[in-house]
Specification:
Chain lengths: 262, 72
């Protein structure tokens, strides 16, 4: 056996087990495990924060209201307005909770004790994506009519007519079947991969610096510590970016329902 | 909700959303639709090579479609 093989022969890399949780307790027929508890916690944090910020709004904002207004203005100006224009205000009650639910849920990945990104279980992003998809259908049929929505979504303008025979099925499948799937998977996969990476480096550090200290493995362990810190910082960035992208696409899909293309 | 039937803005954000959303979805859909046709033809004509050929055709065509719609 070569040196790396001997060095790592007791090392077990973390895998899918990271995402499987035993039920903590049961409520009737429902088993409640850690991800559910975290989702409820995230919900309470988001509601609590905005309650504290806006339950008694002042003309001159102070304390929580200051932070709340910054958060609101960010989502409105960066996500709402580019896609929904002057309709942005009326959609904020959907976009704000989506953005903060996703972001705080992702943030749980680096919160001590919690240490689990809620959205790395595909059920949670999928529910959000389906919610946005249904919203797209409802506003689309309302604003453009059922056949108008189908036509605007599947027939991009300015193409030679012969191409439509091939374009229509592709655009149809893309808009009505693949879209909610990619919407959810983009968030899920990012959180899933990030969580595995951090767990892997942390396990390397723990294994080589604590469980089985060897002169040769010491350097590997130190590398594990460094990479855990670097990846955690990088994850903080990715978590915010993914929450932003998820909400941005939500606004984009709703705008596709509200307005016909061109 | 007072949609006036037109897009509010044509902006960089829209291009970004197209790049991260519509483009990958179109390419997946292209491979799915062409792949489906290729699979049916492969079974019907009993020529196994048709499935990979159509998958690649779908990829190429969807790439062209993305270029035409969002790239120019």
């Amino acid at each position: 056996m070569s040196a790396p093989h001997i060095l790592a022969k007791d090392f077990e890399a973390p895998g899918l087990g990271l995402f499987e949780w035993k039920p903590l307790f049961h409520i009737g027929p429902f088993a409640v495990a850690k991800p559910i508890v975290l989702v409820l916690l995230v919900m309470i944090i988001v509601i609590g924060f905005f309650w504290a910020a806006f339950s008694k709004p002042q003309l001159v904002p102070r304390g929580w209201q200051n932070v709340g207004e910054v958060a609101y203005v960010f989502v409105r100006d960066e996500i709402g307005r580019p896609f929904l224009g002057k309709d942005a205000e009326s959609w904020m009650r959907l976009l704000i909770p989506v953005f903060f639910f996703v972001w705080i849920g992702n943030l749980m990945s680096v919160v001590p004790v919690a240490q689990f990104p809620v959205n790395s279980r595909i059920a949670f992003p999928l529910v959000l994506a389906v919610l946005i998809y249904l919203t797209f259908w409802v506003v689309g049929v309302k604003k453009q009519g059922f056949f108008g929505l189908l036509k605007n979504a599947t027939m991009p303008p300015d193409l030679p007519w012969a191409l439509y025979i091939i374009v229509i099925p592709i655009e149809f499948v893309s808009t009505f079947f693949i879209r909610p799937f990619t919407h959810a998977v983009r968030l899920f996969a990012n959180m899933f991969a990030g969580h595995i990476l951090i767990a892997l480096f942390a396990t390397v550090a723990f294994h080589f610096l604590w469980e089985k200290v060897t002169p040769l493995g010491f350097g590997v362990g130190v590398l594990g510590v460094v990479l855990t810190i670097v990846m955690t910082a990088f994850e903080l960035f990715i978590q915010a970016v993914q929450a932003y992208v998820f909400t941005l696409l939500a606004a984009f899909y709703i705008s596709a329902g509200l307005y016909s293309d061109h | 909700m007072t949609g006036n039937g037109r897009l509010p803005t044509e902006s960089e954000d829209r291009e970004f959303a197209n790049a991260v959303s519509a483009a990958p979805a179109t390419i997946l859909a292209g491979m799915l639709v062409f792949g489906g046709v290729g699979w049916l033809l492969a079974r019907w004509l009993d020529i196994q090579a048709l499935l990979p050929i159509f998958l690649v055709l779908g990829l190429v065509f969807a790439g062209y479609l993305v270029y035409v719609r969002y790239g120019r």
